[in-house]
Amino acid sequence: MELHILEHRLQVASVAKESIPLFTYGLIKLAFLSSKTRLLGCSVGYGGLKSSPPRAVAPSIGQLTRVLAEIPPRDSCPSFELLRHEPRNRCKFFSLTETPEDYTIIVDEEGFLELPSSEHLSVADATWLALNVVSGGGSFSSSQPIGVTKIAKSVIAPLADQNISVFMLSTYQTDFILVRERDLPFVTHTLSSEFTILRVVNGETVAAENLGITNGFVKPKMVQRPVIHPLSSPSNRFCVTSLDPDTLPAVATLLMDVMFYSNGVKDPMAAGDDCGHIRFFSFSLIEGYISLVMDVQTQQRFPSNLLFTSASGELWKMVRIGGQPLGFDECGIVAQISEPLAAADIPAYYISTFKFDHALVPEENISAVISALKVSQAEKH
């Protein structure tokens, strides 16, 4: 298999829920005014079909302005006249995830310029690079997703053994492994025996150059990785889906309301007084491909014919990792979760955020997952 080092230089940031109005203008530009937007169809999505749906460009600024005009005036809503004259941004990697605690933003350097400098924006102290495991050649946009549990032994565990911290972002299309730019030589040396390592330069995939680690590198012994953080499983049932950009104008008002203006208010149908229900929504626009993670209550707000899901309509349950905010310097958190799942052959999506981590597993496997992770916890003691 191939390991691709993507060319995006990324920032990971957090915005407190009460401060999001300060950033709504820039975030709407990043989500809806990209230079091009397209959708990947693969064997696990688009109704289970292997053929790709049509690619399309993003809505025009005029279309978006008309959509924005439908939103009732709010202090944090962008100025329609200003937005009309905005150029399309050059951002190619953007992800926004809302959790009960905050908003996590992952964005490339070009997109980061769209965000105002503010004391309310917490930025991780590193530049990150995105890695992508590809089977069968090509790029992430033309290959079948691998799945985080499929790369647990070949990527996640070896990096944890070398005390290399990773930040995960699973999307409808693929899984991105984010590593600090300064760790890249150690990453490539660690994984070079398992993968053909390629680098994306100006959109072209080329052989990765020697990154300088050759001597004195000792392969560590494999060790058990017990789960060392508290786990919880909210009552939400989630779907992982995508959207044809041709339909973006039709749902832009709804998407912006969900992303910025719902204030985490639970749908009355969510489960009455169910205190286990949490607010979680993730939107990614990466190299023109859209990915959405939402619970079924939010999904029901969208027209049923516009979202792409698996033919089986598979739903997912979440395991939240962490009792208090996780540190960026701590290593092995993803490995502690993904290795037991890989051993049980249970697929998973994995989304790291600024404060906590989140694994999504098939709904029917949640009991087995909790049991497997509890066994890992018990082995620790």
Automatic annotation (TrEMBL):
Keywords: Cytoplasm. It is found in: Cytoplasm, Cytosol. Residues 9-38, 87-121 form the CASTOR1 N-terminal domain. Residues 229-311 form the Cytosolic arginine sensor for mTORC1 subunit 1/2 ACT-like domain. Transmembrane segments: none annotated. One of its GO terms (molecular function) is identical protein binding. SUPFAM superfamilies: ACT-like. The keyword Chaperone does not apply. One of its GO terms (cellular component) is cytosol. Pfam families: ACT_7 (PF13840), CASTOR1_ACT-like (PF21389), Castor1_N (PF18700). Residues 125-192, 313-374 form the CASTOR ACT domain. The keyword Cytoplasm applies. GO terms for biological process: negative regulation of TORC1 signaling. Belongs to the GATS family. This is Cytosolic arginine sensor for mTORC1 subunit 2 isoform X1. It comes from Zalophus californianus (California sealion). The lineage of its organism: Eukaryota, Metazoa, Chordata, Craniata, Vertebrata. The gene is CASTOR2.
